[in-house]
Amino acid sequence: MPGGALAIYLNDHLAGSVAALELIEGLLAHVGGQPLEQILIGLRQEITQDQETLRGILSQLDGDESALKRAAAWLAEKAGRARLSIAAREHPALARLEALESLALGIQGKAGLWRVLSAVAAQDSRLGGHQFGTLEIRAVAQHAIVERERIAAAREAFPG
Fold first, then answer.
1. Is the dihedral of CA 73, 75, 79, 84 positive or negative?
2. Which of 84, 76, 108 lies closest to 157, judged by CA?
3. What is the pLDDT along the chain (160 residues), one digit of tens a residue?
4. Which domains occur in the chain, in start order?
């Protein structure tokens, strides 16, 4: 694969962002009119921007987006969404908690991605011109927001 190991790594994170966006779409279908809806819409926009950043970096590395990884992420998320839809019928707050937990874990991974790229940029000039520190700060802020909603869902799911 053109771009080598770094391109593979970026494709893994790009696939993760596809899954995250699908997960957000699934959550949006269940939270219409609730305050969480606007939070998810904002996250969707920022994750889409992050995808474009990753695609731009891949392009700088002469790498291509892996259609196979993208499709695998999409399929995995569809299976997860089906499971959450079934759970949502019996325990909507638990389903929301689990979906938010998956999203929070993915965002932590994205913060790690930006940290890695910042470190690698010091030795790889092809990564210049990106504000990896700013992107990491945004990911940390996203995680804090999702974590707050995850804890609220946990309190609702486990009221005793």
1. positive
2. 84
3. 446 899 999 999 999 999 899 899 989 988 888 899 999 999 999 999 999 999 999 988 876 655 555 555 555 555 555 556 555 567 888 889 999 999 999 999 999 999 999 999 989 988 988 999 999 999 999 999 999 999 999 999 999 8
4. 4-157 (1.20.1260)
**The pTM is what?**
0.85
Q: What is the largest CA-CA distance in the chain?
A: 55
Alpha-carbon dihedral sign for residues 146, 156, 38, 82: positive
The C-alpha angle 109, 125, 127, rounded to 5 degrees, equals 30
Return d(Cα 147, Cα 152) in angstroms, integer.
9
Task: Measure the CA–CA gap between 116 and 107, rounded to whole angstroms.
Answer: 14
First-to-final CA distance of the chain: 52
Long-range contacts of 94-97 (CB under 8 A, 24+ apart): 94/153, 94/157, 95/30, 96/27, 96/30, 96/31, 96/36, 96/153, 96/156, 96/157, 97/150, 97/153, 97/154, 97/156, 97/157
d(CA 39, CA 28): 10
